[in-house]
């Protein structure tokens, strides 16, 4: 697979929003769920997702930091991010990453009890788009 720069990956991911987040439970069984990283985010190798700290995905990440993110677009762009997950509860970081519209899931904003961020730092990103493919390694 052809090597790709972080800039190339960021350009591909520029307008992507929803992905499937894959985590593993204590029995090493994979679990997938759709997640939004809020689209139009400048990708720098880290993906950010708001969640509740009592969710299964947060528990799974705290027990096994391996996370995969799978993106797909209508024009056949596929991206797989493999990385490590971390749970962030710092109010300044929550405030920095907050965007309008999240209050439909977190009605009290960053003061919503149990709110947290899931940070996924990519160690490897692969993409396939029609006849082109590439791979970035952090």
TrEMBL record:
General stress protein FMN-binding split barrel domain: residues covered: 6-131
Top-rank taxon, per record: Bacteria
Range of residues in the leader sequence: none
Taxonomic lineage of the native organism: Bacteria, Pseudomonadati, Bacteroidota, Flavobacteriia, Flavobacteriales
Name of this chain's protein: General stress protein FMN-binding split barrel domain-containing protein
Species in which this protein is naturally found: Chryseobacterium formosense
């Amino acid at each position: 697979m052809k090597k790709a720069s972080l800039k190339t990956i960021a350009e591909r991911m520029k307008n992507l929003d929803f992905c499937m987040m894959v985590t593993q439970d204590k029995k090493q069984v994979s679990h997938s769920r759709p997640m939004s990283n809020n689209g139009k985010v400048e990708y720098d190798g880290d993906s950010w997702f708001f969640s509740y700290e009592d969710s299964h995905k947060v528990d799974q990440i705290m027990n096994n930091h391996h996370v995969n993110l799978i993106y797909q677009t209508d024009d056949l762009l596929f991206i797989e991010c493999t990385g490590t997950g971390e749970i962030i509860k710092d109010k300044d970081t929550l405030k920095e990453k907050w965007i309008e519209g999240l209050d439909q899931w977190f009605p009290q904003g960053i003061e919503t009890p149990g709110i947290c961020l899931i940070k996924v730092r990519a160690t490897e990103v692969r993409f396939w788009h029609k006849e082109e493919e590439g791979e970035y390694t952090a």
